[in-house]
Amino acid sequence: MVTPEVYGKPTPEAAVRAGRWARLATGAELAFMAQVIVAAAVFLATSGTRDDHGTGFAAGADVLKVLAGGLPLLLLAGCLHWALFSLPATALARLTGGSRGETARVALCAAAVTAAHAWWVTALWEVPFGRAAAWIAGTGALPLVAAWYARRRSLWWGAMLARIGALTGITLLAALAGAFLQARTGWLGYEPPRLERDQYAGSWIGGGGAHRLRLDANGGAEVGNLPLENPNATLWGACSGTGTWAFEPKGPSGGARDRVTLTIEGCGRMLDWRIGGTAGRPELFTVVDASDSRRVITLHRP
Q1: Can you tell me the distance from the alpha carbon of 190 to that of 42, in angstroms, rounded to the nearest whole number?
Q2: Spatial distance between the Cα atoms of 24 and 16, rounded to a whole number of angstroms
Q3: How far apart are CA 28 and CA 144, in angstroms?
Q4: Dihedral sign, CA of 9, 76, 139, 165?
Q5: Where does the pLDDT of residue 256 fall: very low under 50, low under 70, confident under 90, or very high at 90 and above?
Q6: How close are the terminal C-alpha atoms of the chain, in Å?
Q7: H helices, E strands: number in the chain
Q8: Distances (CA, A) of 208 to 117, 151, 213, 297, 298
Q9: What is the pLDDT of residues 15-47, one digit of tens each?
Q10: What Cα–Cα distance (Å) separates residue 215 from each residue in 3, 8, 79, 202, 247?
Q11: What interhelical angle do 129-153 and 102-124 show, nearest 10?
């Protein structure tokens, strides 16, 4: 029997009969990696609309560090996603019937694979089944569409790389243009909330309860395990005790945000806490400078 060919290449059916199951999900791993790259680019492009706590994550050095460490992991994640999700879903669809209704079978088999993986995730970690299934399905939809497109057009990895690369490049350019316009116009730019002094009074916690701050309306303060300006001032580089607090509104002398200054007995110079978050969910934060990084500690209402 003569093997059918299209433009000199085996058709998907001939490739399956030859045992090339990987051919069933051609380009799926490329689509997975592309969507992660685009999501990261959009996240960086919209950084001006979120509170970066003054750390400036989008600086060139930070981006280069992320790229250097993240690209190998992204490649590994794409291969794992292809082997654990895209390939099983398309292989099951091919085994359960012929070419008729293949698209519907791929969708049903993908739902079955999603449910299996979601059950496995919920068995290992305390994650709601619906949330796990939504994340798995969300990351798998586009790769399956790419695999379906490659099968319909009898495309191999080179052709899929060219198409996905072109679409990814266009999307990245659009994200870059959007970031430029947002920075120039300030559209939807983040603005820290403004609270009256009395609104700061009460309890604030952070780090899963590791950091505690209680502010009294009369100016008294009680702190638990809060960082110091000089981390070498005490054995643990943190302070617990009682003292006073003062509110300093933003302005020429107060910086770009309202802030709270603490004076705690026996603790030396305390770091200032600045306002962040939103009006509906305000937070206090401080930035601890280390030798090679900057760590943000946030406090929120219990």
Answers
A1: 16
A2: 8
A3: 6
A4: negative
A5: confident
A6: 73
A7: 7, 10
A8: 29, 49, 13, 11, 10
A9: 444 445 557 899 999 999 999 999 988 988 888
A10: 79, 76, 51, 5, 11
A11: 150
Rounded to 5°, the CA angle 193-179-190 comes to 0
Residue 119 carries which side chain, given as an amino acid letter?
W
Residue indicated by tokens 């981390």: 231
Token pair for 264: 């705690």
> Does pTM top 0.85 for this prediction?
no
Question: Could you please report the per-residue DSSP string of 179-241?
Answer: HHHHHHH-TT--------GGGG-EEEEEGGGTEEEEE-TTSEEEEEEEEBSSTTSSSSSEEEE
How far is Cα 260 from Cα 279, in angstroms, rounded to an integer? 17
Those residues whose C-beta lies under 8 Å from the C-beta of residue 282, and which sit 6 or more positions away, are 193, 195, 199, 275, 276, 300, 301
Helix (H, G, I), strand (E, B), or coil: what is residue 92? helix
Q: Find the DSSP H helices in the chain.
A: 12-17, 28-45, 60-81, 87-95, 102-124, 129-153, 157-185
* Coil, strand or helix at 260: strand
Q: How far apart are CA 6 and CA 137, in angstroms?
A: 33
Tell me if residue 41 falls in helix, strand or coil.
Answer: helix
Whole-number Å distance between alpha carbons of 188 and 191: 9
